[in-house]
Structures are given as structure tokens and as C-alpha cells.
Amino acid sequence: xLVELNLPQHDFKIKKEAxxxxxxxxxxxxxxxxxxxEWVRQNFVSYLIIHKGYPRGLMGNEVxxxxxxxxRRCDTLIADNSGKPIAIVEYKAPxxxxxxxxxxxxxxxxxxxxxxxxxxxxxxxxxxxxxxYENNSYSFLDDIPEYINL
Length: 150
Description:
Shape: globular
Radius of gyration: 15 Å
Largest sheet: 6 strands, mixed
Number of strands: 9
Strand order of the largest sheet: 4-5-6-7-8-9
Order of helices and strands: EEEHEEEHEEE
Strand content: 35-45%
Helix content: 10-25%
Number of helices: 2
């Protein structure tokens, strides 16, 4: 079940209850059902914290938002040092190809947060784009920036 991802390997707390696997979410500080998408989320969050210097205290998983009157949840929201949202991350299971629908979804969430960076990952492929609101444009980056460079 646990597919090898295109991310550095990390040790996770995983438990089995009533035949289901659960993984400890270090941001929500609780065990959550270990789905393929959750496996990507936990690996990606660990990658951001350990390898890119993202502060755990400025990140949140499953952050609620209201978009066009509909309650939704942002997979991961990252804030700057003042607490202002700076990046949104959207995850898909490794078996799901990242396409236009995924980008449409994260752009809809960004209509609420208006962040500078949008990140998308299925654990195999990772994309990051920087939004330029002044010129109404965006650019894809070659790599995911370290936190200090956001």
C-alpha cells in the first residue's frame, strides 16, 4: 500500500486499528486514516520541514475555508512569520495524474487566500508556481523554494 514516492524517506508513526492503518500527523497532532493522498501529504510536509526549513508552527493541514459559500478544506496552508498565508499545497494520490483540474482546484482556493506560491504534488511529480499579482501572471519554478526564500 505504501508506494515509494519521489521524496526523501522519513520514519512515521503508523498504527493499525480495526484492520485500518493510521499515520500520525505532526501538524494536526493526531492519528489520521492512512489513505494514498495522506501518505503523500505526510511525506511532503516532512520534506518541507526537514529539507526546506519550513517552520512546523506556521503550517496547517486540512485548513477550513469558505469559497463561494461552500465549505472546503485546503490540504496544507503555509504562513509567513507574521501569520499571513504565503503558500497553499494541494495533494493527490500517487496514482492520480496532476492536470488542469488540480490547478483549477488550487486556484479556486487561492481566490480566498491570495498567496504568493501554489504547490501541487502527487508524491511523484511536484510543481510550484509563484503568483505575480501586479502583472496578473504566474511562473513555474524549477524547484520548491526553501522557506527563507519565500
